[in-house]
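Thread: Newbie trying to understand structure tokens

Hi all, I'm a second-year student working on a class project, and my supervisor (Dr. K.) asked me to get a predicted structure for one chain before our next meeting. I've only ever worked with sequences, so writing a 3D structure as a token string is new to me. If someone could post the tokens and maybe explain what I'm looking at, I'd be very grateful. Here's the chain:
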Amino acid sequence: MEQENKNKLVTSRWDAVVIGSGIGGLVTASQLASKGAKVLVLERYTIPGGSGGSFKREGYTFDVGASMIFGFGEKGYTNLLTRALNDVGQHCETVPDPVQLAYHLPKGLEVSVDRNYSKFISELSEKFPKEAKGIKKFYDICWSVFNCLDSMPLLSIEDPTYLAKVFFKAPFACLGLARWLPINVGNVARRYIKDPELLKFIDIECFCWSVMPAIKTPMINAGMVFSDRHAGGINYPKGGVGVIAQKLVKGFEENGGVIKYKSRVKKIILEKGQAVGVQLSSNEIIKAKTVVSNATRWDTFGGEGVKQSLIDRNQAPPSETKWLKRYKPSPSFLSLHLGVNSNIIPKGSHCHHLILDEWEEMEKEQGVIFVSIPTLLDPSLAPNGKHIVHAFTPSSMDEWEGLSPALYKEKKQNDANLVINKLENIFPGLQDSISHREIGTPRSHRRFLGRFKGSYGPIPSKLLPGLLTMPFNTTSIKDLFCVGDSCFPGQGLNAVAFSGYACAHKIGSKLGLNSWSLPE
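---
Reply by user tm_fold:
Sure, no problem. This is what the structure looks like when written as tokens:
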């Protein structure tokens, strides 16, 4: 009887069907459900969260992606993960990280980004004493951008009614943000900083979360990241990053939403140019008033090298062709999930590290290594006497295509060993302490996360004016919406949470579900 009821739910008509359970898709779905909408989420894999998920192996809980999490603050409006969970009656217990990131850079440059803003500015100024005024000026400008963001509810800027209400509430903040929308970080940094080495540090500060140098990184995004790490701070969810998605799903279901796993969407159904539902790989058809794609823009609308997209390429609107010319997929990652003896990680070590041997290698294949040791914050993620070391480095799908099974296996092992050798520079003896080793490649990311080329997200293919060219949630196809890192404002869990809020607000406006008053 229970299975029969589930089948009836699936074949009925929904207010919204969401393709994919990444954080952007789950925030959209849970927000709509909390407003009373009838929402179905379809997930191709067996667990929610996408690259914000977790998986278990031999007593370890490994994060799929990065564990440097913004958005868990308690004040203001930029704490979007906290707010999204609260809105559906959920809460994540978190552990504060005292240092965002420890940089290990060329020529022995070591910088640790302390949670305390004054301490970070002071320590960076000691490294570059002639640039002390410029350092303070640049990062203070980032604070001014953040303060604008943090003073207003972050909902859909496609909604004129919402914009009017927000402008009435915070006119100066709105004007302040408008000023920075077309500006990139590199332009601002070069006004106040002249030292080439310090400008390269600003580049790696941007690259660590945008996978782009400062000249291509929007100032709005930098204002959020460079300041929120000192305001709300970096806070790790106890139990692993996947707990965020699990709790969003729980709140979503408690508000009447339905999620189906192992449900791969084959295509979005269009009738007279309007999205009316989806067809699954099983050929089951599900109808809905609105369709939301949490897939990448390439997987949604197609493009060069895309074998199959949710919308036939000949049905994709011209605006998507323009987008394809402006953006390209960022590299994917080679990921190492290691279980190691706990005594190999010195006491007092920081959770997050970035290793770069030569500045010229920053944007090259496997040039930067990111390291996360989440068990320093939550020991329960590993068996007693063990730590997790998650190391990942940007890697292009082109490096992994066309390999025979034997060559693919050999490349995985060889490339993983190169990464481990570099890790030995900061954790001597690591190689001999490994008791569990699992390797993910761009092919793994494509297979399990369903992302074109396993990409982390879109990056500009040429110099663009800040965020002005980023698409919003509405598409040129009626009743079809997009959410996630292919939409404004881009990559990162807090950014896709913003995208989810905006998407749900836009759909809520269409369905007549939005409250007239702004969120408190």
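A couple of things are worth pointing out once you decode it. Residues 1-11 have pLDDT under 50 and may be disordered. The CA atoms of residues 145 and 179 lie 10 Å apart. Feel free to ask follow-ups in this thread.
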